[in-house]
């Protein structure tokens, strides 16, 4: 069993107690409905208290939850007729990024997303959702294909970052990411990106140059992990909680700075609590955003994407 997160421990323990009472009532044929109802009411109050007062580090833990829905989970719930496409036509197929063609509300679209695993075996297969350069080149191939056939592109971001290994660097990791940034800026079709878990460094940004960028309520988006930032700033990775607060990596922070276009509400306790309900929230957002972007011309799409990123950040000009 996965060890519960610290801030969630009271909720987890109360849920376990309720399940124990239900099992006792069932096996011993004893009426414990009153006690169970009281505990369920207390659980609801506790969840409301905890999940409406989450700190940045708490959201980091939820974003990393082992059972958090992945790209494939959302594809299954939201889209129909999905056909996965493989390979970058140069080196190989990187399973840390998946992509293909599907139907969304009757419209053909291209889906691209980071894919991590939920078990150790699957994470090894998916390289823990950290792509090699061939993964980003596969993504770019599918983007250019979507542009050729006038299909909107939907990207799901969920990675700690691009794989930093020697082999990845030898095959041009930095160039592959930079190429994606350059090419995505000029795509003539609508591009929507959603951070569904962790959005780490350039490995996330390589799928993030979009007309509309959204984040799930408990996802994170940052140039480096809190542990990495703490190691650099204070030479102590254990200060990750303080780093998470200082870095402004939550959806609320990024919306306040106008880096993202919107926040997608999560079910109480995180998206892993109810994948279908969470997929419905995401579907509503995609439908609204795609309806808006479909009305824009090719030039308007490019210009809106350009303007979006030019407006990010603040500066003051000083007279010389």
Automatic annotation (TrEMBL):
Keywords: ATP-binding, Coiled coil, Cytoplasm, Fatty acid biosynthesis, Fatty acid metabolism, Lipid biosynthesis, Lipid metabolism, Nucleotide-binding, Transferase. Residues 11-49 form a coiled coil. The keyword Transferase applies. GO terms for cellular component: acetyl-CoA carboxylase complex. GO terms for molecular function: acetyl-CoA carboxylase activity; ATP binding; carboxyl- or carbamoyltransferase activity. It catalyses: N(6)-carboxybiotinyl-L-lysyl-[protein] + acetyl-CoA = N(6)-biotinyl-L-lysyl-[protein] + malonyl-CoA. Pfam families: ACCA. Pathway: Lipid metabolism; malonyl-CoA biosynthesis; malonyl-CoA from acetyl-CoA: step 1/1. One of its GO terms (biological process) is malonyl-CoA biosynthetic process. Its EC number is 2.1.3.15. Residues 38-292 form the CoA carboxyltransferase C-terminal domain. It is found in: Cytoplasm. It is an enzyme of class 2 (transferase). HAMAP family: AcetylCoA_CT_alpha. Belongs to the AccA family. Component of the acetyl coenzyme A carboxylase (ACC) complex. First, biotin carboxylase catalyzes the carboxylation of biotin on its carrier protein (BCCP) and then the CO(2) group is transferred by the carboxyltransferase to acetyl-CoA to form malonyl-CoA. Acetyl-CoA carboxylase is a heterohexamer composed of biotin carboxyl carrier protein (AccB), biotin carboxylase (AccC) and two subunits each of ACCase subunit alpha (AccA) and ACCase subunit beta (AccD). This is Acetyl-coenzyme A carboxylase carboxyl transferase subunit alpha.
């Amino acid at each position: 069993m996965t060890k519960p997160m610290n801030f969630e421990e009271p909720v987890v323990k109360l849920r376990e107690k309720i399940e124990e009472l239900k099992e006792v009532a069932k096996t011993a044929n004893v009426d414990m409905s009153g006690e169970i109802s009281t505990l369920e009411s207390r659980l609801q109050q506790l969840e409301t208290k905890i999940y409406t007062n989450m700190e940045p580090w708490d959201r980091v833990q939820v974003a990393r939850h082992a059972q958090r829905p992945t790209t494939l989970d959302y594809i299954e719930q939201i889209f129909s007729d999905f056909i996965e496409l493989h390979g970058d036509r140069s080196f190989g197929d990187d399973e840390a990024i998946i992509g293909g063609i599907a139907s969304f509300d009757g419209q053909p679209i291209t889906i691209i997303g980071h894919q991590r695993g939920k078990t150790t075996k699957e994470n090894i297969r998916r390289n823990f959702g950290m792509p090699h350069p061939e993964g980003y080149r596969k993504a770019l191939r599918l983007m250019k294909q979507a542009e050729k056939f006038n299909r909107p592109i939907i990207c799901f971001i969920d990675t700690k970052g691009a794989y930093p290994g020697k082999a990845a660097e030898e095959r041009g990791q930095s160039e592959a990411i930079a190429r994606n940034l350059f090419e995505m800026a000029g795509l003539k079709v609508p591009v929507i990106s959603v951070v569904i878990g962790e959005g780490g460094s350039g490995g996330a940004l390589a799928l993030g140059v979009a007309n509309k960028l959204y984040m799930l309520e408990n996802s994170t988006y940052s140039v480096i992990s809190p542990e990495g930032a703490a190691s650099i700033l204070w030479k102590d990775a254990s200060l990750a909680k303080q780093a998470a607060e200082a870095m402004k990596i939550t959806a609320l922070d990024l919306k306040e700075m106008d880096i993202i276009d919107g926040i997608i509400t999560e079910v109480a306790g995180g998206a892993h609590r109810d994948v279908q309900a969470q997929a419905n929230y995401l579907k509503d957002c995609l439908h609204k955003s795609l309806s808006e972007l479909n009305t824009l011309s090719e030039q308007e799409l490019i210009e809106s994407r350009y303007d979006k990123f030019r407006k990010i950040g603040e500066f003051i000009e000083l007279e010389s």
